[in-house]
Each structure stands twice: as C-alpha cells, then as structure tokens.
C-alpha cells in the first residue's frame, strides 16, 4: 500500500462526511491550548544504534507500505480511556487506495490501528490509532472527547497477545491538517509511544471536513 500524497494522509479521514448543526457546535470547540508539545517532539528523536540505517532515509513507514520486520507485531485490539469514558474495539487499517487517506473504520464506535507501523510490543516508534469524532448518521464517535485529554490521563491498550499495556498522556496538540508533522507521528524510531488522532477545530461545510487534527501522545508506564 502506498501513500502518494502527504496532504491526503494528513486529512486522516477521521472526520465525518456530514454533520448535524448540533454536532458541529459541539465538536468545533477547541482545547484551551496545546500541552506537552516539547515532550512529544523529544520522543521522536531517535537514539542511533549499531546497524541503524543511514540518515536521509524515509522515517514515515507509509511510502513502501511494507509490514514492519523483526519480531511478531502485536496489534492493539481494544483501547480504554477512563477519563473520557472510552472503550473501543481497534481494527487494523491501512490507507484507502482510492483516496490515499488513512482508512478509519466506518463504524464510529471503532477505531483504527495503522498496521504498517509499530505494534504494541515494539521497543521504538509510534503506534498510531485514529478514530472518527462523529457522524451525522451514527452520532458521536469513539474519539468525540479526545480533545479533553490532559497530561497524566491514562490509556490502556489490550493487544492481540492478551496482554494489557498502560500508557500515560504527555501531550495534546492541534494542527491544521496541512501542517501536521507526519514524519514525527508515523515514525518507526524514537521512544516507544502511542499516538491517538481525530479531527477538531471548525467544520467547513463546503468540504464537509474539520479543519484540524487533534493529536494525543502517550508513553508506556
């Protein structure tokens, strides 16, 4: 699977195709401010190791579309976030070949793990999970309240191996979809971390999309 357009991937397909007026008002509210941006950036700084690839190679594992090599990848199958009352099934997803966008599950109560990136057992890199904020037909999505998460909140991911892993939120950021640093959030290197993404900011009725992405970064505890 190949991503041919950086801007298309930034769109993430994490917003609904159409929204009710009430939903637009509710979801258009933004966090007071970003928190932990420096911490999130620091996690993406890789520590060179013997046999590491030479600098200058791609750090975002979406162009080749190959599954990570090495040990068996452990996919997340369920995510629980008590602070925002979320318990959601996680489906493995890739990129939609027609739209070149992150292929979030169509059911808004499910969320998608980017299966061409690291799994829960990886000792480096960003485990990316994205979800819908809402839908005119289905109502609030699993990540409807993702923008409310703050530093110190906990996220529990259950893997396909049956093991439960706990993470602590260290950052919450909001980006215009054309400005989100994909190299950072889809990297296979740097410290192990969990990256949660949904839509946010104002809703554009012409494009039928939210303008921004909300990105939450969490680290293993």
UniProtKB/TrEMBL annotation:
<dbReference type="InterPro" id="IPR042001">
    <property type="entry name" value="Sortase_F"/>
</dbReference>
<feature type="signal peptide">
    <location>
        <begin position="1"/>
        <end position="22"/>
    </location>
</feature>
<keyword id="KW-0732">Signal</keyword>
<dbReference type="GO" id="GO:0016787">
    <property type="term" value="F:hydrolase activity"/>
</dbReference>
<dbReference type="InterPro" id="IPR023365">
    <property type="entry name" value="Sortase_dom-sf"/>
</dbReference>
<dbReference type="InterPro" id="IPR005754">
    <property type="entry name" value="Sortase"/>
</dbReference>
<dbReference type="Pfam" id="PF04203">
    <property type="entry name" value="Sortase"/>
</dbReference>
<keyword id="KW-0378">Hydrolase</keyword>
<protein>
    <submittedName>
        <fullName>Peptidase C60</fullName>
    </submittedName>
</protein>
């Amino acid at each position: 699977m190949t991503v041919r357009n950086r801007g298309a991937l930034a769109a993430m397909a994490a917003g609904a195709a159409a929204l009710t007026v009430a939903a637009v008002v509710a979801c258009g509210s933004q966090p007071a401010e970003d928190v932990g941006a420096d911490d999130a950036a620091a996690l993406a700084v890789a520590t060179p190791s013997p046999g590491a690839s030479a600098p200058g190679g791609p750090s975002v594992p979406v162009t080749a579309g190959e599954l990570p090599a090495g040990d068996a990848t452990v996919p997340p199958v369920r995510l629980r976030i008590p602070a925002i009352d979320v318990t959601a099934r996680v489906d493995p997803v890739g990129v939609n070949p027609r739209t070149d966008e992150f292929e979030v599950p169509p059911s808004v109560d499910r969320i998608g793990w980017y299966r061409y990136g690291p799994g829960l057992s990886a000792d480096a890199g960003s485990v990316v999970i994205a979800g819908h904020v809402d839908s005119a037909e289905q109502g609030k999505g699993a990540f409807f309240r993702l923008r409310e998460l703050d530093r110190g909140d906990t996220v529990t991911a259950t893997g396909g191996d049956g093991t439960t892993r706990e993470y602590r939120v260290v950052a919450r950021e909001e980006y215009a979809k054309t400005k989100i640093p994909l190299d950072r959030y889809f990297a296979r290197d740097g410290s192990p971390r969990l990256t949660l993404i949904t839509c946010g900011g104002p809703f554009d009725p012409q494009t039928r999309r939210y303008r921004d992405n909300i990105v939450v970064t969490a680290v293993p505890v």
